[in-house]
Amino acid sequence: MSMKRKAVQPLSSVTAPKKSKVTLESFFSPQVPLPKKSSDGPTEPSHAALSSEQIRVLHMVIDEGKSVFFTGAAGTGKSLLLRAIIRALRKKFSKTKDAISITASTGMAASNVGGMTIHSWGAVTPNCNDINLMIKCIKTCRPALQRWKKTKVLIIDEGLL
């Protein structure tokens, strides 16, 4: 039995098919300037690619003071939008200490957004159904009571449905 060798063309002579040029401007979503908190003092601009729908939600929160609930599948930009909202709120309330509170329903979610659990923030017990007992707990926990009084915007990430 004899084996024949087939001639193989060297890689240097192989050319890729011609493709049309794609520019960065056509690839990325519109850029929205957002304030970025700097450790040196003043805020510096940053950019996040937000969709028109996300920009509308951001406008509702920042400019209109609306309470919003947004949801979506994985990878749809919920975290990007939340970070944009937090940055814009920090800029808006930069002179008001403790005006923004960032919370989440679980410890893991709270650590992801740089906040604390809603139960810890508000000094409430998850399984307590007695509203009078909850109010008493809040009033006796001075740090939580101050948070309730000073907070102008409460963000709850990953709210349990």
Automatic annotation (TrEMBL):
Catalytic reactions of this protein: ATP + H2O = ADP + phosphate + H(+)
DNA helicase Pif1-like DEAD-box helicase domain residues: 50-158
Pfam family, one: PIF1
Molecular function terms from GO: 5'-3' DNA helicase activity; ATP binding; hydrolase activity
Record-listed E.C. numbers: 5.6.2.3
Domain of life: Eukaryota
Broad enzyme group: isomerase
PANTHER family, per the entry: ATP-DEPENDENT DNA HELICASE
Protein name listed in UniProt: ATP-dependent DNA helicase
Organism: Lentinula aciculospora
